[in-house]
Design goal:
Blueprint lengths: L6 E8 L1 H11 L5 E9 L4 H8 L6 E4 L13 H11 L6 E5 L13 E8 L7 H8 L6 E7 L3 H12 L4 E6 L4 H5 L8 E5 L9 E2 H7 L10 E7 L7 H11 L4 E7 L5 H7 L5 E6 L13 E2 L1 H6 L4 E5 L2 E5 L2 H10 L8 E5 L3 H12 L3 E6 L2 H10 L3 E4 L10 E4 L24 E4 L8 H8 L3 E3 L1 H15 L7 H10 L4
Parallel strand pairs: 1-2, 1-8, 2-3, 3-4, 4-5, 5-6, 6-7, 8-9, 10-11, 10-12, 13-15, 16-17, 16-19, 17-18, 19-20, 20-21
Antiparallel strand pairs: 12-14, 14-15
Helix pairs in contact: 11-12, 11-15, 15-16
């Protein structure tokens, strides 16, 4: 049950037995039930009356017409007659489209939710739409629009934050954060489903409660998130949210798909929302820099930012990838005075080679494009060799920073298998699959390995420290994060 004042509404649909079981399950976790009458097998008076007896929670009746995304097959006159008949059962609320013409026939004891739906876009004139809706007296005004970017979702959250008794949500995957974060902007309700969504982008009850701890979110909750493109494969929300709860932190972590061209407007929109920290993934690790008050020297040297922290209204950038990678590596072997052969010359290679050089390692870069390897090597006071000469390199530790071997091409290796030395230490930054072909070959040749998830856990630990998430020891956090790495 929610403790934040906003109702968690669970939609009920299907045949009689399905609806009955759904009511029983939903009554244990929700604050109210929405009877989606247009999605029920039968909507006669006796059928609905009997279903109503199975719930002690407030009930919303919704008989949605097709023009607003519903499934009622009759015309508007037939819908009016059927709904008014069903309303003799005296539900607590009725959800009625704002452009319906029979509001005056609703029993005054039944609270009205006046709703607007736009399945095409999120209009710029939400204020005008609300003003038009408010010509109809209602307990709650609900606005649901389609999100075409995360910016649409942020605009909706800002809009709701400034209103009273307005529930605003964006449909589609890009709008999911409006549903998760609704208590933080004081929305009076959000909708969720048990088994089958009733709107695109709707979040399941189990996800809202078990992952995002929806009942605990409120106006004082701080928001953290991952920004980048893509973000769908990230496990950040699975790791950070339980840690927040364990650390008794009133915070929530969400994933926000953000493209480079959207970054300027993004930083403008979040000024009035309680975002306080971000994980930054590709392709934004350099793009965010101009919007920060400062970037720490190590992140500047690497040329990539993976963590943002808000302090006194300003954003600051740092990089926990480099330290995370070397901390994971040095749990197996110290790098001082060791020769590290790094495959690749991109962002991960630059981060790892910079930190390794700082810790006293000799760094050698190899890459399919030798010129890129030479440029990076000169920046970290290392050497560069063609990928065809790797078999001649006297390395102690070999690190793959490329995407070669990542799913679905799990049989590929970044260098020919015969170039890999016996009894060496190998590290692959790839998380999926856990056991890459590259690491498998190293183990078959008597070597030890460091997995990509170990680096992920260490860099995530670094982010939690940057955000001042305290209350748990490092090993407890690392073990917890690693346990989620392959869910």
């Amino acid at each position: 049950m929610s403790y934040n004042g906003g109702m968690l509404v669970i939609s009920i649909q299907g045949n009689f037995e399905e609806a009955k079981e759904a009511i029983r399950a939903a009554s244990k976790v929700g604050d109210a039930l929405e009877f989606r009458l247009d999605l029920m097998e039968k909507i006669d008076l006796s059928h609905v009356s009997k279903l109503k007896t199975y719930s002690k929670l407030p009930i919303i009746f919704t008989l949605r017409k097709k023009s607003h995304g519903g499934s009622f097959k009759g015309n508007e006159t037939e819908r009016e007659g059927k709904l008014l008949e069903l309303l003799t059962l005296k539900p607590d609320y009725v959800d009625l489209e704002y452009d319906s013409n029979f509001f005056d026939k609703i029993d005054p004891e039944i609270q009205v939710i006046a709703s607007y739906h736009n399945f095409e876009k999120t209009p710029e004139n939400l204020e005008e739409i609300l003003k038009k809706m408010q010509e109809i007296p209602a307990a709650i005004y609900k606005i649901a629009t389609m999100a075409h970017s995360s910016l649409d979702a942020l605009k909706m959250l800002l809009f709701v934050k400034k209103q009273k008794n307005v529930a605003g949500m964006c449909m589609g995957t890009l709008g999911m954060i409006t549903r998760i974060l609704s208590p933080i902007v004081d929305s009076p309700l959000t909708y969720a489903f048990l088994e089958k969504p009733t709107a695109p982008g709707q979040v399941s009850v189990s996800e809202l409660i078990d992952i995002y701890h929806y009942p605990l979110l409120n106006r004082s909750t701080e928001i953290y998130g991952l920004i980048g493109d893509p973000v769908d494969k990230s496990i950040g929300h699975l790791c950070h949210n339980p840690i927040f709860k364990k650390a008794k932190k009133n915070g929530v972590y969400v994933k926000i798909l953000l493209k480079p061209l959207e970054v300027p407007e993004f930083f403008n929109l979040i000024k009035e929302l309680p975002f306080v920290g971000f994980s930054v993934t590709m392709p934004l690790k350099e793009v965010v820099a101009p919007y920060l008050a400062a970037v720490d020297p190590q992140a500047k040297k690497i040329g990539a930012i993976n963590t943002l922290v808000k302090k006194e209204g300003e954003w600051f950038g740092t990089n926990t990838d480099a330290k995370g990678a070397l901390d994971a590596l040095e749990k197996k072997e110290k790098v001082i005075h060791k020769t590290l052969l790094i495959i690749g010359a991109g962002g991960a290679a630059k981060a790892i080679s910079t930190e390794a050089s700082n810790r006293g390692a000799r760094v050698i870069i190899t890459n399919r494009t030798l010129k890129k390897a030479e440029i990076l090597a000169s920046q970290v006071h290392g050497g560069a060799i063609p990928i065809t000469d790797v078999d001649q390199c006297p390395y102690d530790i070999i690190i793959n920073t490329t995407a070669v071997g990542m799913s679905p091409k799990i049989g590929d290796t970044p260098i020919p298998p015969e170039f890999i030395k016996e009894n060496s230490l190998g590290f692959d930054v790839i998380m999926h699959p856990k056991e890459t072909k590259f690491l498998n070959i190293i183990q078959n040749k008597g070597g030890k390995v460091v997995y990509g998830y170990e680096m992920y856990a260490q860099q995530a630990l670094g982010q939690l420290k940057a955000w001042s998430i305290l209350g748990l020891n490092d090993e407890e956090i690392l073990s917890f994060i690693e346990s989620f790495a392959f869910i």
